[in-house]
């Protein structure tokens, strides 16, 4: 019987949490890949997780490696390789370094896992997803970026925190590129079907929107060295489980648009249906004129960064 194979490209903080989460969920066998100088580090992490399996009754295999041969025929590839943000850095500041890393990863994945579903989490994520898809030549349905899933989770969490109600009852979405001009869709945000405008003052709603947009930076400053990893890993798991379980989940994700929302040829965060065929379609919601204007402003920023890839 075929067992799902998951390749984690990058064994840093997000990759490590992903390895643990995927193991505990028994999603499949796991390969953690990092640079040769970090090979012992990821081997140690893999061994550490292997030895927790008896405590949870888990039966999957993990290895740490620097050899891409070990990801042969992987079903899922998650790319977290690259340098993280530090205080006073924007996501766009990472472009020059991370683009070369992503190009190299894409070439390797193209050879070793040509049929994989790929989730890119490296920042700036919209431009890095674009780069991976261009270099690998994979169909757009199999290359998706982590953006709105993470941002939506933050939006949900802050609504729950402000109202004092369960996050499970919060329904909302964040669209646009993963950056300071992202669009939390307040108009459609609800708690158990009740619009948040009936539960919170406009001042508190504005505060939630601001904090959602700045949450990544807030975490970077609090950590002092590095960026968010627990919530990032959980968001990626949501996307991977939707793919492996053919769940048809609607998850805001960085996706290559071909006319949707007036965007053509660029990756940006939009509502995506994720199932066994990868991103099966983009849902085009009716936006208000104000929302359209915010989306266009956001897209211009995404476009400028993506154009700097030179691809």
From TrEMBL:
Gene3D superfamilies: Lactate dehydrogenase/glycoside hydrolase, family 4, C-terminal, NAD(P)-binding Rossmann-like Domain
GO biological process terms, semicolon-separated: lactate metabolic process; tricarboxylic acid cycle
Reaction(s) the record says it catalyses: (S)-malate + NAD(+) = oxaloacetate + NADH + H(+)
Gene Ontology molecular function terms on file: L-lactate dehydrogenase (NAD+) activity; L-malate dehydrogenase (NAD+) activity
Oxidoreductase as UniProt keyword: yes
Residues annotated to bind substrate: 85, 91, 123, 154
NCBIfam families named in the record: MalateDH_bact, PRK06223.1
Record protein name field: Malate dehydrogenase
Originating organism: Solemya pervernicosa gill symbiont
């Amino acid at each position: 019987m075929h067992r799902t194979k998951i390749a984690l490209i990058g064994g840093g903080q997000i990759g490590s949490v992903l390895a643990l989460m995927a193991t505990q969920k028994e999603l499949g066998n796991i390969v953690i890949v990092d640079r040769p100088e970090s090979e012992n580090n990821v081997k140690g992490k893999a061994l550490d997780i292997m030895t927790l399996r008896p405590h949870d009754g888990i039966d999957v295999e993990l290895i740490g490696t620097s050899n891409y041969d070990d990801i042969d025929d992987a079903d899922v590839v998650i790319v977290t390789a690259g340098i993280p943000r530090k205080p006073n850095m924007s996501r766009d500041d990472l472009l020059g370094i991370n683009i070369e890393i992503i190009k190299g990863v894409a070439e390797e994945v193209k050879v070793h896992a040509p049929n994989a579903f790929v989730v890119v989490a490296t920042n700036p994520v919209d431009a890095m997803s674009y780069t991976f898809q261009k270099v690998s030549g994979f169909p757009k349905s199999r290359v998706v970026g982590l953006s709105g899933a993470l941002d939506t989770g933050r939006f949900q969490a802050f609504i729950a925190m402000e109202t004092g109600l369960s996050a499970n009852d919060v329904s909302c979405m964040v669209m646009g590129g993963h950056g300071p001009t992202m669009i939390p869709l307040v108009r459609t945000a609800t708690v158990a079907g009740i619009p948040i405008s009936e539960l919170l003052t406009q001042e508190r709603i504005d505060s939630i929107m601001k904090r959602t947009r700045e949450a990544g930076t807030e975490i970077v400053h609090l950590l002092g060295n590095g960026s968010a990893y627990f919530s990032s890993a959980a968001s990626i798991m949501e996307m991977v489980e939707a793919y492996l379980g053919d769940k048809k989940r609607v998850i805001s994700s960085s996706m290559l648009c071909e006319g949707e929302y007036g965007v053509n040829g660029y990756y940006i965060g939009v509502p995506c249906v994720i199932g066994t065929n990868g991103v099966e379609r983009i849902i085009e919601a009716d936006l208000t004129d104000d929302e359209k204007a915010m989306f266009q402003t956001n897209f211009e920023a995404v476009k400028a960064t993506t154009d700097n890839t030179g691809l």
